[in-house]
Design a protein that fits this description.
The protein is of the alpha+beta class. Helices cover about 50% and strands about 20% of the residues. Bound molecules: adenosine-5'-diphosphate (ADP). Pfam families: HATPase_c.
Amino acid sequence: MNRFDTDLLHALGDLDDALAVLDGEFLVALNAPMQALLPGDAGGLAADWAQALQGLASALAAPLGERRRCGVSGEYLAQRVALDARHVLLRLVDDRERLHHLQRQLDDREGLLFTSRSLTVSEMGSVLAHELNQPIGATANLLRGLKLRLARRHPDSTDELAALDKAVAQIAYASQIIGRVREYTQSRQPKAERLDLGALVHQSLALLDWDLQREAVQLALRLPDAPVPVQGDAVMLQQVLINLLRNALDALRLDRPDAPLIDIELRVEAGRAELRVGDNGPGITPQTEARLFLPFSSTKPNGMGLGLSICRSLIEMHQGRLWFTRRDAGGCCFHFALPVLAAATPPTLEKTA
Ligand code: ADP
């Protein structure tokens, strides 16, 4: 080792970054942080020594001055600078701290978005619950009264009576939601009942059968034969399903394909139930996708842009996930996944003598 290298090594020893001096193909000197990271001997071939860190060999081949990432997840930044006509200094900057910090920031941001979605749900919820309770109750009473009078005066008006029944069922559903929102804003906890997701799909479709018929939408339903038990709040989960179905219906109405279709699939995989609601409507543009789950972003003339943001919050409250994909055959598909409950233990039969 010549004087230049020894002095340099001495000086490098005081620095925090991992440094090495290369002379052409040879490794001439390493400071302590570099030794700790990549042990090597002065005089050896730099290319052999560099094998110990993923991506370093190709960083050594990069033009002088250029910064290249290396390490298993790119956690080090490698840069070479010329010291003189012969010697090159290799510097490895440990970027783990900054990457951790960045990840923490992303996690915090996700947490903040979740909190703000929950706040939106709960604040909007309490205002709406308060304001809508009265008119909904009054409408339900009026409809029931109307049905009674119609049944007395025109008992043969079966179609009208059936339509009134449906209207009363819709109002009952609305008032159930309002009631549940009021309970939730007080307790801030979804209910934890044992539910069958397949049954929930049927109940939701029953509330939308009129819309499906009116829009002449074909329904493809793929549900497992066995019940799919999950723990959750029936009203909240039904709200999610109805929102997704209504969005699919809106999309098919606004931009009608030749054979409008909604396909629903429920399947169980690796302890999770995944429900998919797809449609062959116009699909979602990248611009809409970027703002899809943000509150108050809607492309509909009278849309509030709250449905998907509320749905995502409701699913997250159930330890689930809600997301969107594009369908290969056109249109889009919304998915949510929830943990499946273990099959109920069959009741033990009492032995009779
Ligand atoms: P809103 O229905 O009030 O617009 P949402 O949050 O439910 O609010 O939906 C936000 C936007 O997402 C819609 O305005 C629409 O642009 C888009 N979207 C949601 N579902 C679909 C779908 N199935 N097909 C096409 N676009 C959709």
